[in-house]
Amino acid sequence: MQRREYSVFKDLDARWANLLRPRPLPPPSYPALGDAEAEQVRRLRAEDHEALAAPRQLARFLCGISSPAATRAKLRSHAMFGAFERVPFNEVLEFVGDKTP
After folding, report:
1. Pick from 78, 43, 39, 36: which is nearest to 60 by CA?
2. Is residue 20 part of a domain?
3. Is the overall model pTM greater than 0.85, yes or no?
4. Does a structural domain hold residue 46?
5. Residue 92: closest CA among 51, 63, 64
6. DSSP-derived secondary structure for the chain
7. Domain count along the chain
């Protein structure tokens, strides 16, 4: 009697090869930061919150990332807390550092 080799994986390879092939990710979808957002950031800075003095603190706040200083200042209920939560943190950090004095 002859022994037949059969592999379940052979059949799976043929059927699933298309699904397992790497594909490029779609471009990220998030709102672009422009002049209107820059004006909102300027107004927020004009409120002169000590907890938002540094660009990184401001970017964290706008992305909805709380910090001990912002919590002590009771800023979590501020309308701008998390306003840019769908935008990547590094882009917000660059935006508040470059675009808004």
Report:
1. 78
2. no
3. no
4. yes
5. 63
6. -PPPP--HHHHHHHHHHHHHS--PPPPP--PPP-HHHHHHHHHHHHT--GGG-SHHHHHHHHTT---HHHHHTT-TTSTTTTTTTTS-HHHHHHHHHHT--
7. 1
pLDDT tens figures, 81-100: 999 999 999 999 999 997 55
Question: What are the tokens at 4?
Answer: 């037949």
Q: Within a domain: residue 53?
A: yes
Range of the domain at 90: 35-98
pLDDT digits (tens, 9 = 90+) for 39-60: 999 999 999 999 999 999 999 9
- Which of 47, 49, 54 is CA-nearest to residue 93? 54
Is residue 65, in this structure, part of any structural domain at all? yes
